Amino acid sequence: MKQCKIWLAAALTAATLSGCSVFDKLVYKIDIPQGNFIEQTQVEKLRIEMSREQVEFILGRPVLRDSFADDTWYYVYQFKSGRSGEITRKELIIKFDQNRVASVTGDYTLSEQFDTPLSTSAP
């Protein structure tokens, strides 16, 4: 009889501990967005030789400004889905030369007009 109680207690403990994972699908988990959400249309507005102020007006403040390379801005976005746990990460790296855009790299497509600077002279 005593051995039966021990087996029953062990089975109850195992069922209780495994019960948490059974109901995991029913628990609501929020989506977690972090960083700068940038749309493709914003990136298409970028042009070579834009000033830092113009870039900041279009994209907002960067998540990271490298303290050792002041001429590099990082726009990083990460999204973790609460339902599936899938993580999506996108980044955009802008390098400046003499406070003007020199290059743009990352997970976004640049427009065909990127290499054409904006007109700086008034008509």
UniProtKB/TrEMBL annotation:
Name of the protein in question: Outer membrane protein assembly factor BamE
Subunit structure as annotated in this protein's UniProt entry: Part of the Bam complex.
Family: Belongs to the BamE family.
Span of the signal peptide: none
GO process terms (BP): Gram-negative-bacterium-type cell outer membrane assembly; protein insertion into membrane
GO function term, MF aspect, one: protein-macromolecule adaptor activity
Function field: Part of the outer membrane protein assembly complex, which is involved in assembly and insertion of beta-barrel proteins into the outer membrane.
Gene Ontology CC: Bam protein complex
Domain of life where this protein originates: Bacteria
Gene that encodes the chain: bamE
Subcellular location: Cell outer membrane
InterPro entries to which the protein is assigned, alphabetical: BamE, BamE-like, BamE_dom
Membrane topology type: Lipid-anchor
Main location: membrane
Domain Outer membrane protein assembly factor BamE: 35-104
